[in-house]
Design a protein that fits this description.
The chain is an alpha/beta fold. The protein contains 5 helices and 5 strands, in the order E-H-H-E-H-E-H-E-E-H. The chain has helices spanning 30-33, 38-51, 64-77, 93-100, 141-154; strands spanning 14-18, 56-60, 80-84, 107-111, 133-136. Helix 4 links the parallel strand 3 (80-84) and strand 4. Helix 2 (38-51) runs parallel beside helix 5 and helix 3 packs parallel to helix 4 (93-100). It is globular. The two termini are 17 Å apart.
Length: 155
Amino acid sequence: MTSAPHIPTTSAPILVLNGPNLNLLGVREPHIYGHDRLSDVEALCVKTASGYGRTVDFRQSNHEGVLIDWIQEAREAHVGVVINPAGYSHTSVALHDALAALDGKPVVEVHISNIHKREPFRHHSYVSSVADGVIAGCGVQGYAFAIARVCALLG
Protein backbone atom coordinates (compact mmCIF):
# COMPACT_ATOMS: atom_id res chain seq x y z
CA MET A 1 0.00 0.00 0.00
CA THR A 2 1.34 3.41 -0.89
CA SER A 3 0.97 6.41 1.34
CA ALA A 4 -1.18 9.27 0.20
CA PRO A 5 0.30 12.74 0.23
CA HIS A 6 -0.57 14.58 3.43
CA ILE A 7 -3.43 16.97 2.94
CA PRO A 8 -5.21 19.03 5.59
CA THR A 9 -8.09 17.35 7.39
CA THR A 10 -11.35 18.65 6.04
CA SER A 11 -14.45 16.64 6.80
CA ALA A 12 -16.39 14.45 9.12
CA PRO A 13 -14.56 11.37 10.34
CA ILE A 14 -14.68 7.81 9.03
CA LEU A 15 -16.52 5.61 11.52
CA VAL A 16 -14.56 2.46 12.38
CA LEU A 17 -16.81 -0.06 14.12
CA ASN A 18 -15.72 -3.23 15.87
CA GLY A 19 -18.16 -5.91 16.94
CA PRO A 20 -18.28 -8.46 19.73
CA ASN A 21 -15.17 -9.86 21.38
CA LEU A 22 -12.80 -7.52 19.54
CA ASN A 23 -12.15 -5.85 22.89
CA LEU A 24 -10.21 -9.08 23.61
CA LEU A 25 -8.01 -8.73 20.52
CA GLY A 26 -4.44 -9.78 21.28
CA VAL A 27 -5.58 -12.00 24.13
CA ARG A 28 -8.33 -14.16 22.62
CA GLU A 29 -7.15 -16.83 20.18
CA PRO A 30 -3.91 -15.08 19.14
CA HIS A 31 -3.12 -18.01 16.82
CA ILE A 32 -6.08 -16.81 14.72
CA TYR A 33 -6.24 -13.06 15.35
CA GLY A 34 -2.62 -12.20 16.22
CA HIS A 35 -1.11 -10.35 19.15
CA ASP A 36 -2.08 -6.77 18.29
CA ARG A 37 -4.56 -5.22 20.67
CA LEU A 38 -7.54 -3.11 19.69
CA SER A 39 -5.61 0.00 20.76
CA ASP A 40 -2.94 -0.93 18.19
CA VAL A 41 -5.63 -1.20 15.52
CA GLU A 42 -6.97 2.21 16.50
CA ALA A 43 -3.49 3.76 16.21
CA LEU A 44 -3.08 2.16 12.77
CA CYS A 45 -6.44 3.56 11.62
CA VAL A 46 -5.65 7.05 12.92
CA LYS A 47 -2.25 7.03 11.19
CA THR A 48 -3.65 5.72 7.91
CA ALA A 49 -6.54 8.20 7.83
CA SER A 50 -4.22 11.07 8.69
CA GLY A 51 -2.17 10.31 5.59
CA TYR A 52 -5.30 10.97 3.55
CA GLY A 53 -6.22 14.13 5.46
CA ARG A 54 -9.01 12.32 7.27
CA THR A 55 -9.84 11.38 10.84
CA VAL A 56 -11.49 8.35 12.38
CA ASP A 57 -14.05 7.78 15.09
CA PHE A 58 -13.05 4.37 16.45
CA ARG A 59 -15.56 2.34 18.50
CA GLN A 60 -16.21 -1.19 19.78
CA SER A 61 -19.27 -2.82 21.28
CA ASN A 62 -20.37 -6.31 22.18
CA HIS A 63 -23.99 -5.22 21.71
CA GLU A 64 -25.76 -5.39 18.36
CA GLY A 65 -28.20 -2.58 19.14
CA VAL A 66 -25.37 -0.21 20.06
CA LEU A 67 -23.64 -0.94 16.74
CA ILE A 68 -26.91 -0.25 14.91
CA ASP A 69 -27.36 3.05 16.77
CA TRP A 70 -23.83 4.08 15.77
CA ILE A 71 -24.45 3.15 12.12
CA GLN A 72 -27.60 5.24 12.13
CA GLU A 73 -25.63 8.12 13.66
CA ALA A 74 -23.16 7.81 10.76
CA ARG A 75 -25.88 8.93 8.34
CA GLU A 76 -25.29 12.50 9.56
CA ALA A 77 -21.98 12.49 11.42
CA HIS A 78 -19.54 10.42 9.31
CA VAL A 79 -18.32 10.24 5.71
CA GLY A 80 -18.13 6.46 5.56
CA VAL A 81 -17.88 3.28 7.62
CA VAL A 82 -15.27 0.60 8.13
CA ILE A 83 -16.82 -2.29 10.02
CA ASN A 84 -15.55 -5.51 11.50
CA PRO A 85 -18.88 -7.01 12.51
CA ALA A 86 -17.10 -10.04 14.00
CA GLY A 87 -19.61 -12.75 14.96
CA TYR A 88 -22.53 -10.57 13.87
CA SER A 89 -21.33 -10.92 10.27
CA HIS A 90 -22.94 -14.31 10.11
CA THR A 91 -26.13 -13.63 12.05
CA SER A 92 -27.28 -10.02 11.81
CA VAL A 93 -29.83 -9.00 9.25
CA ALA A 94 -30.32 -5.90 11.43
CA LEU A 95 -26.70 -4.75 10.81
CA HIS A 96 -27.25 -5.38 7.10
CA ASP A 97 -30.38 -3.22 7.12
CA ALA A 98 -28.73 -0.39 9.08
CA LEU A 99 -25.76 -0.30 6.68
CA ALA A 100 -28.10 -0.40 3.67
CA ALA A 101 -29.72 2.78 4.98
CA LEU A 102 -26.49 4.81 4.81
CA ASP A 103 -27.64 6.44 1.57
CA GLY A 104 -24.60 5.66 -0.53
CA LYS A 105 -21.86 6.40 2.00
CA PRO A 106 -18.92 4.05 1.48
CA VAL A 107 -18.84 0.91 3.62
CA VAL A 108 -15.91 -1.50 3.80
CA GLU A 109 -16.15 -4.75 5.76
CA VAL A 110 -13.01 -6.07 7.46
CA HIS A 111 -12.16 -9.46 8.92
CA ILE A 112 -8.78 -10.09 10.53
CA SER A 113 -8.86 -13.79 9.68
CA ASN A 114 -9.83 -15.28 6.34
CA ILE A 115 -13.42 -16.26 7.10
CA HIS A 116 -13.49 -18.44 3.98
CA LYS A 117 -10.78 -20.74 5.38
CA ARG A 118 -12.61 -21.22 8.66
CA GLU A 119 -15.74 -23.07 9.78
CA PRO A 120 -18.49 -23.24 7.15
CA PHE A 121 -20.88 -21.08 9.21
CA ARG A 122 -18.37 -18.21 8.90
CA HIS A 123 -18.33 -18.28 5.09
CA HIS A 124 -21.47 -16.15 4.75
CA SER A 125 -21.70 -12.54 5.87
CA TYR A 126 -24.94 -10.56 5.85
CA VAL A 127 -22.83 -7.38 5.74
CA SER A 128 -20.96 -8.22 2.53
CA SER A 129 -23.93 -7.62 0.25
CA VAL A 130 -24.18 -3.98 1.36
CA ALA A 131 -20.42 -3.32 1.55
CA ASP A 132 -18.47 -1.58 -1.21
CA GLY A 133 -15.53 -3.84 -0.40
CA VAL A 134 -14.63 -6.80 1.79
CA ILE A 135 -11.16 -7.38 3.18
CA ALA A 136 -10.45 -10.68 4.90
CA GLY A 137 -7.36 -12.54 6.00
CA CYS A 138 -4.91 -9.63 6.00
CA GLY A 139 -4.62 -9.42 9.77
CA VAL A 140 -5.01 -6.02 11.35
CA GLN A 141 -3.39 -4.52 8.25
CA GLY A 142 -6.80 -5.04 6.64
CA TYR A 143 -8.04 -2.02 8.59
CA ALA A 144 -5.44 0.18 6.87
CA PHE A 145 -6.54 -1.22 3.50
CA ALA A 146 -10.17 -0.50 4.42
CA ILE A 147 -9.43 3.11 5.43
CA ALA A 148 -7.53 3.60 2.16
CA ARG A 149 -10.45 2.18 0.18
CA VAL A 150 -13.01 4.41 1.90
CA CYS A 151 -10.77 7.42 1.13
CA ALA A 152 -10.50 6.33 -2.51
CA LEU A 153 -14.27 6.01 -2.77
CA LEU A 154 -14.67 9.46 -1.27
CA GLY A 155 -12.34 10.88 -3.91
